[in-house]
């Protein structure tokens, strides 16, 4: 009783001190590397309950390559990788400079200045809309030179501190947030280091569940739970990669005949002039012989991947088959990035819970591109300059008022 009275008075105090936005409140929570099938392990009862009581799909269709930067940028822009330009965690720019080091990342996310993520569009839609981001990949940069109201550039590491900060921004006196992006990266790190079926991944899953429980508890404490529309999602799952399944294409090619940019399980190859046939033939021979990876000329890349129609795609693209990897995965037990249609375990989870969403609602799997039109509709945002590749058609069935 004492504890309850204390929490009520704290929430009243903070409620009085902190203004809440007049707009609907939306919080996207990204759990990097959370394959939809992890839920079946029975280690995440809080997330499971949210799923059962809220709206969900068994999984989302994610973008190729099934890695972090392309997928979170697809979610936040509603555009295919070939349109927003982030065709890998690492990718060539149009001059065949490989963008991957910290100083290049700004450039990686600024392929076309018309492309803006939801947090920027929210603020450009005016009427006291304020955004907040905490570690969401690509959120550390400004788009159209517009710094958003709340950006955790100090990179808070601790999960509960991230949540505390997010809630403070929703209750900010000056600029109360109506749209926040919260990111947790630990599960992906453990999946790479120890593999998806490891004890370490299982214990991290339990920690993630505790973190989500803390988020829900704090929202109740600050009187925000019944106002907050929470979307919990991920970018991809994780597959095991045994060491004997690693492929070293460097052994087959002359050093000066090509430049490579990427990371397991996908690499772009730019062929130096005069070596076109030699490089392609050698890689193609090895691919045919081993059957563990595929080589595509730019024009042969499958359309459904949407990474082909961009100046950033180079001459060749190498893609390993599921459970295989390239030489750089040598320190990994788990990897991802494969063709999303080649193995269902690379697909990510999607759960929505809050006043705008239906309860106990399950919809068919949809593209992660569709999150952008969903959030745009919920917050009545302006039209973006580039028409989204996603659609509201399927995902709108989770809304109480579609
Ligand atoms: Zn990863």
Automatic annotation (TrEMBL):
<dbReference type="Pfam" id="PF01663">
    <property type="entry name" value="Phosphodiest"/>
</dbReference>
<dbReference type="GO" id="GO:0016787">
    <property type="term" value="F:hydrolase activity"/>
</dbReference>
<feature type="signal peptide">
    <location>
        <begin position="1"/>
        <end position="21"/>
    </location>
</feature>
<dbReference type="InterPro" id="IPR017850">
    <property type="entry name" value="Alkaline_phosphatase_core_sf"/>
</dbReference>
<keyword id="KW-0732">Signal</keyword>
<protein>
    <submittedName>
        <fullName>Uncharacterized protein</fullName>
    </submittedName>
</protein>
<dbReference type="InterPro" id="IPR002591">
    <property type="entry name" value="Phosphodiest/P_Trfase"/>
</dbReference>
């Amino acid at each position: 009783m004492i504890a309850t009275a204390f929490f009520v008075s704290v929430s009243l105090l903070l409620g009085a001190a902190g203004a809440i936005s007049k707009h609907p409140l939306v919080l996207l929570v990204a759990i990097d590397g959370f394959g939809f099938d992890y839920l079946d392990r029975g280690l995440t009862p809080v997330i499971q309950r949210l799923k059962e009581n809220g709206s969900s799909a068994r999984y989302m269709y994610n973008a190729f390559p099934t890695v972090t930067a392309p997928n979170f940028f697809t979610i936040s822009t509603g555009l295919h990788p070939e349109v927003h330009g982030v065709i890998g965690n690492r990718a060539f720019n149009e001059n065949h400079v490989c963008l991957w080091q910290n100083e290049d990342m700004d450039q990686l996310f600024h392929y076309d200045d018309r492309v803006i993520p939801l947090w920027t569009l929210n603020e450009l839609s005016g009427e006291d809309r304020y955004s907040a981001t905490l570690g969401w990949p690509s959120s550390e940069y400004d788009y159209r030179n517009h710094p958003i109201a709340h950006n955790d550039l100090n990179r808070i590491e601790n999960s509960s501190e991230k949540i505390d900060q997010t809630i403070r921004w929703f209750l900010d006196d000056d600029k109360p947030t109506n749209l926040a992006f919260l990111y947790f990266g630990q599960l992906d790190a453990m999946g790479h280091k120890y593999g998806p079926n490891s004890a370490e991944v299982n214990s991290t899953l339990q920690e993630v569940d505790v973190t989500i429980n803390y988020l829900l508890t704090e929202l109740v404490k600050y009187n925000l739970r019944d106002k907050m529309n929470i979307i919990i999602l991920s970018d991809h799952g994780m597959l095991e990669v045994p060491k004997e399944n690693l492929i070293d294409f460097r052994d087959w090619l002359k050093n000066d005949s090509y430049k490579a940019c990427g990371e397991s399980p996908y690499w772009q190859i730019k062929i130096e002039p005069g070596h076109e046939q030699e490089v392609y033939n050698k890689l193609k021979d090895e691919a045919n012989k081993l059957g563990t990876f595929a080589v595509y000329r730019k024009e042969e890349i499958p359309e459904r991947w949407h990474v082909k129609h961009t100046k950033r795609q180079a001459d060749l693209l190498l893609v390993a088959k599921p459970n295989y990897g390239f030489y750089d995965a040598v320190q990994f037990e788990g990897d991802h990035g494969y063709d999303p249609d080649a193995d269902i375990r690379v697909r990510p989870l999607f759960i929505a819970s809050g006043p705008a969403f239906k309860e106990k609602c399950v919809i068919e799997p949809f593209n992660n591109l569709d999150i952008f039109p969903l959030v745009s509709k919920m917050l009545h945002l302006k039209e973006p300059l580039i028409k989204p590749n996603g659609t509201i058609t399927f995902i709108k069935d989770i809304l109480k008022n579609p």
